[in-house]
Specification:
- It is built from no helices and 22 strands.
- With 384 residues, the chain is an all-beta fold.
- It has one domain (30-44, 59-79, 124-383): Beta Barrel (Porin), CATH 2.40.160.10.
- The chain has a 16-stranded antiparallel beta barrel. A four-stranded mixed sheet has the order 11-10-16-17, with no helix packed on it.
- Strand 4 and strand 5 (97-105) form a beta hairpin.
Length: 384
């Protein structure tokens, strides 16, 4: 991040002159180009009349087509993952500090690729922290960002990681963290004996609760997290209100071996949208109104080896499965997915990196349909 002399903001901050000597502003981010050549072996990334596929932006298993003819090689070139952030740190008279952070990027932000490739910014983070309390939107406390592997793709081992940003209030006490976070339930429900619909609902009566413990052993660092959440479906028009509780846990970490490192994560339980960018619904409700949490297993392991001080490679395997095959009407939902990737990263300068990555992914739906994708991806990234 780069510091900005406060004098630059003096004209806009006259009303806060009393704090002018104790507040620092910083800006940071990166510019990143992604070039992806993809081969979809069981269909095309566009289903029917869809004009956009998330696979154009990053690896998303739910977008991999199944049950069709292999596509031709598909190219995507964009700079949507480029981002900008601004932070402030204010030192108070009592010796404490107030910190604020805001960040945007341009993924999934509309636009088109015909002429201008214009994309709207989207909010990633917006939070403030004071005296061990954080309030705002940022990574879920259930997610351990320190355990993520270095990959070329925006997410990488998507199916194997906890990946959620949301509003929350978090309290940190030493190595322990506790938070209340925004609840959201996605329910697959039966509308008849032969069909399933999917709905998103904000019907939860209580927020999601997360507890986390961070610990170290020498150069190795680990985190254990537990999640408790209410899964609820409500339809006032039809006098339906059903709920159940869902629980999950995550164990993740980063182990150092000289310059090399091994990262891993294992997640199990009724975690639903918290893993794999929402690959399966959180719960299932039948025509009788009985609602059940859907159990999910998610894991990845990655090893990074430094060939030289500036050249390194990561090798990553990722896996996800859900109990969607227990419900006869969920044949179109994913049951299992996995991916493997290997890359080479070269940083000729401290903040500038070239990367190339080869990946292969496979998916299987509850009804038995299968699909796979092969992708070669190049990136150039400058962080400031």
């Amino acid at each position: 991040m780069r510091k900005i002399p406060l004098a630059i903001f003096a004209a806009a901050a006259l009303s806060s002159a009393a704090n002018a000597q104790t507040t620092d502003f910083k800006f940071g981010g990166f510019v990143k180009l992604d070039v992806m050549a993809s081969k979809y072996n069981d269909g095309t990334k566009y289903n029917g009349s869809e004009a956009y596929s998330v696979l154009s932006d990053y690896y998303a298993p739910q977008g991999i087509p199944t049950g069709g003819e292999a596509s031709d090689l598909t190219w995507d070139i964009h700079a949507k993952t480029s981002r900008f952030n601004l932070s402030s740190t204010t030192k108070l008279d009592n010796g404490k500090t107030i910190k604020a952070f805001y960040e945007v990027d341009f993924l999934t932000g509309g636009g088109n690729e015909r002429v201008s490739n214009s994309y709207s910014p989207r909010m990633r983070h917006a939070f403030v922290s004071y005296d061990n309390v954080l309030a705002g939107q940022t990574w879920s406390t259930f997610m351990n960002t320190s355990a993520l592997p270095e990959v070329v793709d925006f997410v990488g081992p998507t199916e194997g990681i906890v990946f959620v940003r949301q509003g929350q209030i978090r309290y940190t006490a030493g190595d322990f963290q506790f938070s209340v976070e925004n609840p959201e339930t996605q329910v697959a429900y039966e509308t008849s004996e032969t069909s399933v619909a999917k709905t998103q609902t904000d019907a939860a009566s209580i927020p999601d609760f997360v507890a986390r413990y961070n610990f170290k052993a020498g150069d190795h660092s680990f985190a254990v997290s537990a999640l408790a959440r209410q899964l609820k479906y409500e339809d006032a028009a039809n006098d339906i209100s059903e709920d159940t509780m869902g629980f999950g846990f995550n164990f993740s970490g980063k182990m150092k071996f000289g310059m090399d490192d091994l990262t891993f994560s294992y997640t199990y339980g009724a975690v639903g949208r918290y893993v794999g960018t929402n690959l399966a619904p959180d719960a299932y409700m039948d025509v009788n109104g009985d609602i059940e949490a859907i159990d999910t297993t998610s894991a990845f392991v990655g090893y990074r080896h430094f060939w030289t001080d500036t050249v390194r490679s990561s090798f990553v395997y990722s896996y996800w499965s859900a109990d969607t095959d227990e419900y006869a009407l969920m044949s179109s939902y994913l049951k299992e997915t996995s991916s493997v990737r290997a890359n080479v990263m070269w940083s000729p300068e401290k903040n500038f990196t070239y990367g190339v990555e080869l990946s292969h992914a496979e998916v299987e739906k509850a009804g038995g349909a299968e699909g796979s994708m092969d992708r070669l991806q190049f990136t150039a990234k400058y962080a400031f």
